[in-house]
Amino acid sequence: MKIVYISDSTLPSRSASSIQVMKMCEAISHRGHTLTLFVPNLCDPDMSHEDVFAFYGVSALFRIERHWLPTTLGWAVGSVIYALLSASAARRARPDLVYGRFLPSCYLTAVCGIPTLFEAHVPPSTQRPGWLVNLIFRFWTHAKGNKGVVAISSALAARLEAEFGSMKLIVAPDAADVVYCLKGKHARKEPDQTLQVGYIGQLYKGKGMELIEQIVRKCPSMHFHIVGGSESDIRYWKRALADHQNVIFHGHVRHEDTEEFRQKCDVLIAPYQSEVRVFGGGKNVAPWMSPLKIFEYMASGRAIVCSDLPVLREILTDGQTALLCDPMKPEDWEKALKHLEANEKLRIGLGESARQVQATSYTWDVRVKKIYDHVEDALKTGL
Question: Is the peptide bond before 45 cis (omega within 30 degrees of 0)?
Answer without folding.
Answer: no
